[in-house]
């Protein structure tokens, strides 16, 4: 069964405005659509907010991980400069 959007656009591929990106609820031609980041559609403000909060939590986690890695690198460089043995987590296998 072709959707409103695929019939309108002349394409058989699923269109990003057919269903909510979070809960997969069908988005009809006369329903409100809440957009996020330009191409992500949601059925309600609540679904959109939930996705935003999830994305922000992931971003905070990535930033904390990156900060932790930079700190470990900095500490290893200091230890190396002080003449201490430094072991990294890299393993090379031939």
TrEMBL record:
Q: Which InterPro entries does the UniProt entry name for this protein?
A: FLZ1/2/3, Zf-FLZ_dom
Instruction: Kindly state which keywords UniProt assigns to this record, in alphabetical order.
Output: Metal-binding, Zinc, Zinc-finger
Keyword Metal-binding assigned to the entry: answer is: yes
Which terms in the Gene Ontology molecular function aspect does this entry carry? zinc ion binding
Location of region: Disordered: 73-94
The residue stretches assigned to a coiled coil in this entry are none
PROSITE patterns, alphabetically? Answer: ZF_FLZ (PS51795)
One Pfam assignment: zf-FLZ
Span of zinc fingers (FLZ-type)? 15-59
- The keyword Zinc-finger appears for this protein: yes
Tell me where in this chain the FLZ-type domain is found. 15-59
Annotated family? Belongs to the FLZ family.
Q: What protein is this chain from?
A: FLZ-type domain-containing protein
């Amino acid at each position: 069964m072709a959707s409103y959007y695929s019939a309108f656009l002349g394409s058989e591929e699923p269109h990003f405005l057919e269903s909510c990106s979070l809960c997969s609820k069908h988005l009809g031609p006369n329903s409100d659509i809440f957009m996020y980041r330009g191409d992500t559609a949601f059925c309600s403000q609540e679904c959109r907010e939930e996705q935003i909060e999830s994305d922000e939590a992931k971003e905070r986690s990535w930033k904390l991980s990156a900060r932790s890695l930079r700190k470990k690198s900095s500490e290893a460089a200091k230890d190396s400069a002080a003449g201490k043995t430094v072991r990294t987590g890299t393993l090379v296998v031939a």
